[in-house]
C-alpha cells in the first residue's frame, strides 16, 4: 500500500476503495467487556435473590472468555452455561428458541453434538450496534426463565460499550473545568464513570458524617484528601456484611484493623477486597477517589 501511495493520489484512492469494498471492520469483545457483562448478570441475580448461577461469556467464535460461579451453584452448571453461551453465538439466536423447537417435536435437533449445541433456555447473543460480538449463558438459577433473565441482563450491558475493535486504542483526553469539579464536590458525584471500556473511574467524593464499612471486591481505591479530616479504619473483620450490588459489600462496623487520621494532602491506596470504614468525619470532608479495576 505504501508503494501505491507514493506513486500518486489517484492510485492510492483507488486502492483504498478497493480494499474497503473487500473487507469490513469487525468489533471484538474484550476481557473488560466480558467482566462487565458478568457483573450485570450478577447484579440481576442479587436483585432477584437468585439462589445461585454460573455465568459464562464467550467471544464471537464461541471461545470462553470469562466465567463466574455464584456460591451454592451445582458443579455441572459451568459446562452447561458455557454450552448455552456458545450455542447462542454460533447459531445467532437465544437458546430458548431451540428448546421450544425441540419441545414442539423436532427432536432430531437434540442429536447435534453437545460440544457446540446446548438447546436449553438461558443463552443469549451479545449484540453491539447490530453485530453479534459474543454470547452469555447462565445455568443454576431458580428456573430456566430466571437463567434467561440473568443472561439478558448481562447482554443488555453491552449496549453501553464503546464500539471499538480489540486492537483500537482510546486516545481521547477527558477534561473537567473548575466549575464542573466544584459542582461535583458540592454534593459528591462521579466525574468519570469508566465509559469507553476504561478500567478506572474518578469520583469527587464528599462526606458529612461517618459511613458504613465498605468492601469493593474488584475496585482498588486511590484517595487524595482536599478538605476536612476523617478517621478511617482499614482491614479488620466486617460485622453484618451484605451485598448491595455486584462486587459491592457493606457492613455495620469493623472489628480490629488499622486506624489512621486523614487530613488535606494525605493519599491512600486501598486494594480491592480490603474493608475500609470512615468511622469519624469532620466535614465537609472532600477527597478524590480514583477507582481502578
Quick overview of this protein structure:
With 293 residues, this protein is an alpha+beta fold. The protein has helices spanning 2-7, 9-22, 31-47, 77-90, 95-103, 144-156, 178-187, and strands at residues 53-59, 64-70, 123-128, 131-139, 189-192, 200-207, 213-216, 220-234, 237-239, 242-245, 248-251, 253-255, 258-262, 267-270, 276-292.
**Molecular shape:** elongated
**End-to-end span in angstroms?**
40 Å
CATH architecture designation of the largest domain:
2-Layer Sandwich
Mean pLDDT: 83
What do we call the CATH topology of the largest domain?
Beta-Lactamase
Number of separate strands = 15
Label the structural class: alpha+beta
Question: Which consecutive residue ranges, at least 5 long each, have pLDDT under 50?
Answer: 1-20, 163-169
CATH class of the largest domain: Alpha Beta
Largest sheet: 6 strands, antiparallel
Describe the fold and architecture.
- The chain has seven helices and 15 strands.
- By secondary structure, it is an alpha+beta fold.
- The protein has two domains: 130 residues, 2-Layer Sandwich (Beta-Lactamase), CATH 3.30.450.150; 115 residues, Sandwich (Jelly Rolls).
- Strands 5, 6, 8, 13, 14 and 15 form a six-stranded antiparallel beta sheet that branches. Strands 2-1-4-3 form a four-stranded antiparallel beta sheet. A three-stranded antiparallel beta sheet has the order 7-11-10.
- Helix 3 crosses helix 6.
- The longest helix is centred in the first third of the chain and has 17 residues.
- The chain is elongated.
- The two termini are 40 Å apart.
